[in-house]
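From the shared-data thread, chain only:
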Amino acid sequence: MPRAALPLVAILLLSPPARADDCDALASRVARDLGGSVRTRIGPAFKLTHPDAESWQVDCKDGRLTKAAGSWKGPGTSSRFAQLIARTTSAVFAVPEDAAASALLACVRNGARKAGTIAVASAAGLKVECYVNGEYIALDVVRR
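Structure, as tokens:
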């Protein structure tokens, strides 16, 4: 083996394992703590299941959760869905749940005024994008 390759081999052998296990554990903890479960992982996105969401996900990169998202379609349970996403946002970004809920509510109010378009709100260090159209709500939250 050429001498130039030895440092590279040493780096590869001594490097910590990939962060996939950290991400798996983080996503599982969030799902479990909020009464759901991990359904599948596609790249950085963990698709979660919960009775209060049509879709629910967290994204993870380099051992850090980076996004909370979800959608719901149906009458009467949108408040439980919004609470689930607020709790998810609080768990992912370590912000108070009421601050997360306020940011989500601001976005949904903007979205409801302009139904069928993407609205944006920022608060508590978060950026929330939402889409509201009739009984359908989609929320996407990242750190600002």
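Confidence is low (pLDDT under 50) at residues 5-18.
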